[in-house]
Write a structure and sequence with these properties.
mainly alpha, 82% helix
Length: 110
């Protein structure tokens, strides 16, 4: 019976295992900062926890947002370049004879 209970717990926790494994070193590495912050806030543990949570969320989210914006800009540039090359480049040689490869590469046939 105990093995069934342990197996059920592991099945429930399995989707969250990555998050837990990420949280452990994050918690251990930020604990000294948390205790100093708690001391500066007069021992208010909840307020220190809120400040730490917001700070860590910003440290993780802001770079991802900047990366996403940069990626979207680069994709737009790549799309524009692909549209230009689609009009300029024409397949030649063996590629022109092979319709499957040419259509997969979006080459228009002349």
């Amino acid at each position: 019976m105990l093995l069934v209970l342990i197996a059920g717990c592991l099945l429930v926790l399995h989707p969250f295992l990555d998050a837990v494994l990420l949280a452990i070193p994050l918690c251990v590495s930020t604990w000294p900062l948390f205790t100093r912050l708690q001391g500066r806030m007069g021992g208010r543990r909840t307020m220190a926890a809120v400040v730490m949570t917001v700070a860590i969320a910003l440290l993780l989210v802001v770079p991802l947002v900047v990366l996403g914006m940069n990626l979207a800009e680069d994709v737009a540039k790549l799309n524009a370049a692909a549209c230009v090359s689609r009009l300029v480049c024409r397949p030649n040689g063996p590629l022109r004879r092979c319709e499957a490869i040419a259509s997969a590469l979006y080459f228009p046939f002349v």
